[in-house]
Amino acid sequence: MGLPQAKRDLGRNSKALKPKLAPPGSGNISGNREIVCEVNFYGLAAANFRQYVKELAEEGDLLSISKEVDPRLELAAIVRKVYETEDKAPLFENIKGRQKNGLFRVLGAPVGASSLLGKRFIRIAKSLGLPSDSSGRDIIYAINRAKKRQPITPREFETGPVKEHKIFGDEIDLERLPVPLFHEDDGGKYLQTFGMYIVQSPDGSWVNWSITRGMVNGKRSLVGPTMSAQDIGVIRKMWQDRGEDMPFSLCFGVPPAAIMVGGMPIPKGVNESGFVGALLGQPVDVVKSETNDIWVPRNAEIVLEGVVSRTETADEGPFVEYHGHVFSGSGKPCPVFNIDTITYRDDPILPICVAGKATEESETVWALTQAAEVLNICEAAELPIEMVWSPFESHCLWFVLQVNWFKLRALQTNMKDFCENVGHTVFSTKPGFYIPKIYLVGEDIDPTNLNELIWAEATRC
């Protein structure tokens, strides 16, 4: 269903190469035996950011703002208000300082919660190719079904929309772009809050798609963290060991399914692009970067290419974190991302996440996908867990696990031993490393309903 529309988006001179399936025996993302599942794919929104924006507008969950907005604090304040009220995602068409070359429009709260009746999770659902009225349980189960499918590697094209405009070398000046200052205490302007870094190991066997922030550090550089425990940090170390800078491509406005997967705890060495294909039921269309060997989503809005210095650092931050606090003061030394090339499509859109109090993308993308992985882990450990959720309001600090009492009784264990078993299982994993508190609830409590959870905590704990 999606391929004819995808071809209409390609442009006249595009040539598709044959899509490639992962080789037999390569298994699946979960590491379990492959299970063939029907792919329920609703529209093209999950595979195409422009289509995603269009569908949000059609369903009344996006507001186009033509009045001029100042990128210094005002724009972010509007986005923060939208998060807090769960209002329509704001698309800023007229930002003070917007360049004549089209750079850029801004979409705030791209995966925020919604106040549409019966569609609180519409932006998450559309990002995953699910119906707009999908429940939290639908979303978690859909993610885990995709992990049991065979990965589908990307489909390569010669060109695409993201190649419509190109800027090279000294023509680049990030300081002239209308990059927002989000919070008064921030250490600088953050261009990268909801884009996707693509890096790969020196031999090209491991390609990582992930999200980490980036602050403007001058005309042609960003600065941001590459922590050693994160995949981007592991790959950077490989390049450092060779005495080389690490090439990168930073992509904005990628297929929404890709940005969701970019926040997932995918095992090291596994390529996120294959899981995105499994999630969509079709390959991601990609084109080669201008200055490196990295392939990027061909329908992305904007791509920055360059290298992460193996030695050069600069102060990054402070920056308001996902838990709603900012630790004021000087920044911390982080690697410098030097930029050689910018490519972008006509009238590009920059998606942003303005971190702070819930609900924002830290909860709807990162914490939610961690919860899905915990359910997968519990299933593999044969624990009687029916559902896992991270309540948005917990700011990525709680997991709520729903227990199947019938299966629990069959284990003939006591509650103390069972709780310890769950704790050891979850806290020894990557998601459990970041999220410190677990609540176990019965089948009469909906983990996605905060009122029910608070009632259970207040009356049963």
From TrEMBL:
Any one GO BP annotation for this protein: ferulate metabolic process
Co-factor note (free text): Binds 1 prenylated FMN per subunit.
Pfam families: UbiD, UbiD_C, UbiD_N
Name assigned to this protein: Ferulic acid decarboxylase 1
The protein's role, per its UniProt record: Catalyzes the reversible decarboxylation of aromatic carboxylic acids like ferulic acid, p-coumaric acid or cinnamic acid, producing the corresponding vinyl derivatives 4-vinylphenol, 4-vinylguaiacol, and styrene, respectively, which play the role of aroma metabolites.
Stored SUPFAM superfamilies: FMN-binding split barrel, UbiD C-terminal domain-like
Residues annotated as domain 3-octaprenyl-4-hydroxybenzoate carboxy-lyase-like C-terminal: 364-461
Biased composition (Basic and acidic residues): 1-12
EC code: 4.1.1.102
Protein family according to the UniProt entry: Belongs to the UbiD family. UbiD-like/FDC subfamily.
GO cellular-component term (any): cytoplasm
One of the record's GO molecular function terms: metal ion binding
Gene: FDC1
Domain 3-octaprenyl-4-hydroxybenzoate carboxy-lyase-like N-terminal: 54-142
Transmembrane segments: none
Assembly behavior: Homodimer. May form higher order oligomers.
Binding sites annotated in the UniProt record for prenylated FMN: 208-213, 230-231, 272, 430
Keywords carried by this UniProt record: Cytoplasm, Decarboxylase, Lyase, Manganese, Metal-binding
Compartment(s) of residence: Cytoplasm
Active site: 321
Binding of Mn(2+), residues: 208, 272
Catalysed conversion reaction: (E)-ferulate + H(+) = 2-methoxy-4-vinylphenol + CO2; (E)-cinnamate + H(+) = styrene + CO2; (E)-4-coumarate + H(+) = 4-vinylphenol + CO2
Domain of life, per lineage: Eukaryota
Keyword Ribonucleoprotein: no
Region (Disordered): 1-25
Requisite cofactors: prenylated FMN; Mn(2+)
